[in-house]
Amino acid sequence: MDSFSRLFKKEHIVELVLVILLIIYLILGFKTPVPIANIVDTLVGKIVIFAIVIFLFIYSNPILAILAIFAAFDLLRRSTIVTNSSTLGPLQKYAPSEVKENSPFSAHNQFPYTLEQEVVAKMAPVVKTGCSLTPSPYKPILDNNYDAYLLVNDSK
Predict the structure, then answer these.
(1) Rounded Cα gap, residues 117 and 151, in angstroms
(2) What is the pLDDT of residues 22-72, one digit of tens each?
(3) Which 8-state DSSP code applies to residue 140?
(4) Which of 52, 62, 100, 154 is exposed most, by the fewest CB atoms within 10 A?
(5) Measured distance between the N- and C-terminal CA atoms of the chain, rounded to whole angstroms
(6) d(C-alpha 152, C-alpha 155), whole Å
(7) Taking the model in full, what pTM does it have?
């Protein structure tokens, strides 16, 4: 609680303004501009952001430093979204997709309309109902049940 009350003192007004700006950045979710995202989404940009967060931990209020960590992670996440880079990086960029992988084979899988397909198409449609209109002419017979109990009682 001491660091929270220290934040509102007159000599720490810059830190209070930074806290307010970081909260606004985190809540409103501004889209990172492309030039800034291109700078942040490099190794040097990530090292600079990490150094700023470490500097804030050493020389400023802990509340500001914790908010700076959240804002730094959010800035890095938003920058990777804008620049279309991901954690997969080159793997996602150069690995073939399913469409690219199967495209040489699609030409070989084109078959002409066969006589069998024509005859089956001319046949009478199969009735797909759950019940039969006529009773079946056979009665099923159980095989040896090896002293197992019947689950259904057939005594009607």
Answers:
(1) 45
(2) 999 999 988 888 889 889 988 999 999 999 999 998 988 888 899 999 999
(3) -
(4) 154
(5) 80
(6) 9
(7) 0.52
